[in-house]
Design goal:
Number of strands: 7
Number of helices: 22
Strand content: 5-15%
Strand order of the largest sheet: 1-2-3
Low-confidence stretches: 1-9, 51-60, 528-533
Shape: elongated
Oligomer: single chain
Length: 535
Amino acid sequence: MDSFASNGSQVLDPDDPTVTGERKNTLDDPEDVERACLKQMNYKARRKLQQRVRIEFNITSVINRQKFLMRLAKALMTFGAPSHRIESQLLSAARILEVDAEFIHIPGVIICSFGDQETKTSEMHFVKCGGRLALGSLHEVHQIYRQVVHDEISARKATVKLEALIAAKPLYGSVTRCALAFCLSALICVLAFGGSFVDMWIAGAGATFLCLMQICVATKSQLYANVFEISVTIVISFAARGLSSIRSQIFCYTAISSAGIVGILPGYLILSSSLELASKNIVCGSVKMVYALIYTLFLGFGLQIGSDLYLLFDQGARRDLAALAARMMSQATITGTFISDNGTFANINHGEPLEGTFTFVSGAPYSREHIIDGCYRPPTFPWYLQPFPWWTQFIIVPIFSIMSSLANLQPFWTVELVVMVVISCVSYAANKVANHFIFNRSDVVSAIGAFAVGLLGNIYSRKMGGTAFTSMVTGVLFLVPSGLSQAGGITAQGNGIDIGGAMIAVTIGITVGLFMSQALVYMFGSRKNAAIFSF
């Protein structure tokens, strides 16, 4: 029943019994053993047995162990575990608990098949659920998994803990989530899309509107949930185009519209699909990749519709935009005859006149029109209408990393949050340095940033016992809008197809960087098997 990926590219957990050689002394639950023995004893023998010291091992009945595996599968999907590792982790847990089981993971469903060698029968269960990334809960799931495989608690107690974790309410309420969405979009507007002090507040307001619609309307109406992304992007793009068409030109359409929808970009979805394809998990990877591309096309379509809808009502803004586009053309094509009158081109065509079509390229239309990162920024504008100075990144990047971790439901007063922020800051620094030396290659730049993230995350996991995935995810998600901004922004691509292509280029670079760093860290030493709970 196992999938092709599990056979072809199985990655073993460091605690897997095939690596450690450990075996359980007994696999029955202490209470079940005691109850069965007490029935066959007389009063004196029973009393004598109760006085003996109980040995607590992970000796759980088969049903409880199977139930634990199913709850573990549900918890991993609910809290957004790296999907290309779910099969491997469940198989390792089944081996350590000595359960004859096979698992198949397809998007949204895990098929669990439990076999019985004595009766030659099998039992199949479908675990179906959706979820979102919750870093704090995911870290707790991993800790429970570690406790089970190291004989610290029984599978029955672990099942109770997992059920309580799944049934718990979200870490933060609706108001806190809206505030985090406001802060994230406001900060990324300044960091990645060249927004000004005025632009960041408008982008934050758009993100707050998006979060409110997602929490209050989309979750309660299945009919509206189908068109939620398109409708919200149309509204945000319409408002951004309207503000940018004001005669004073104090607002920037690219910065506001790109940062306003950054909360619903499918960066993590495309990243996980790229990782699955790189892990040879073809079914899940291709399905998620196609869905993420169509989803990105929806966003691009919504942005274009919102912008064109406003220009339909404001013909003056349409003419101004067309005139600016004509002035911004970096090349001009002229058909005619070229004659050299000073002998400069005497070696070309033996000095004879040239006839045909000539293309002239201008190297500085952006600086002449005062366009910086797609925004109009003349020197006469005051400070609050200019891009932020470079030294403000030392303040904004750590704040953004903290907010991004909290938005992914990471508890505040934890050591893991500090590690996430440090790795995220290193990822941004590596991205900026690489972009300074490598131009117009968002995939290569993202690969360098992801390599730095993967190196630190896997070293933290291997040397300090942390969870690599949860410590790296903030830094990796930071690379997606940063990489898109190097590719010209979300809206600067022109249409949805180009936006999808830019996002694929960024995520392929991230995938290569992550796998290279993991291979480098786990190449040396005794534990050569990469940690299951990492990218």
